[in-house]
């Protein structure tokens, strides 16, 4: 099967540099335009199914990118990394209040551990399990999945065998970026497009 992984459009909290996690933010005008432009680029592709994180920003992105889709399946397990007490705070404030954890988040994500938040290991296990379930249900089909930057990147790291200490290395998961993974019947996977850039 072929899995098309899409990050949501720009949100008000992206613009404010505020930590989102699983808290709800909304698309900006630019975010809506990004989603609609993505939909135009993908309108000739016939998807057997559409999946989306249940977050407001991914629901909005799905609505604007795939306005004709009547089969969208919203899944909690496709939501962003849960950051608990950090959510809603500005990144700059957390850098001052919890400098060690903040450094771990951005420079050593394999060490990130904040009470009440998910680790990157937890996030990756959740992402891989969710994608495996979707792939098993859509053998030989093409599926669109709208989710979040860290969740998508955690799955792509798994596919390419990239360790979590190199999580944030390029390519960057910009708003409404589009990645494609081909999943074989035996569950093996190959990235053919990463954040809009062809691979291989």
From TrEMBL:
It holds the Pfam family His_Phos_1. GO terms for cellular component: cytoplasm. Substrate binds at residues 7-14, 57. Keywords: Glycolysis, Isomerase. One of its GO terms (molecular function) is phosphatase activity. PANTHER family: BROAD-SPECIFICITY PHOSPHATASE YOR283W-RELATED, HISTIDINE PHOSPHATASE FAMILY PROTEIN-RELATED. This is Phosphoglycerate mutase. It comes from OM182 bacterium BACL3 MAG-120619-bin3.
């Amino acid at each position: 099967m072929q899995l098309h992984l899409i990050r949501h459009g720009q949100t008000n909290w992206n613009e404010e540099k505020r930590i989102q996690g699983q808290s709800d933010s909304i698309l900006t005008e630019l975010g809506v335009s990004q989603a609609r432009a993505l939909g135009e680029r993908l309108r000739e592709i016939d998807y057997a199914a559409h999946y989306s994180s249940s977050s407001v920003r991914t629901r909005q992105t799905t609505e604007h990118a795939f306005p004709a889709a009547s089969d969208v399946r919203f899944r909690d397990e496709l939501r962003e990394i849960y950051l608990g007490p950090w959510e809603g705070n500005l990144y700059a404030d957390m850098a001052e209040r919890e400098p060690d954890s903040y450094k771990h988040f951005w420079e050593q994500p394999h060490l990130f551990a904040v009470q009440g938040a998910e680790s990157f290991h937890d996030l990756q296990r959740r992402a891989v399990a969710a994608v495996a379930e979707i792939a098993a249900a859509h053998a030989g089909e093409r599926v669109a999945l709208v989710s979040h930057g860290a969740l998508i990147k955690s799955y792509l790291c798994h596919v390419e065998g990239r360790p979590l200490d190199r999580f944030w290395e390029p390519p960057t998961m910009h708003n409404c970026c589009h990645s494609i993974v081909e999943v074989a019947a035996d569950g093996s996977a190959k990235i053919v497009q990463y954040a809009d850039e062809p691979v291989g």
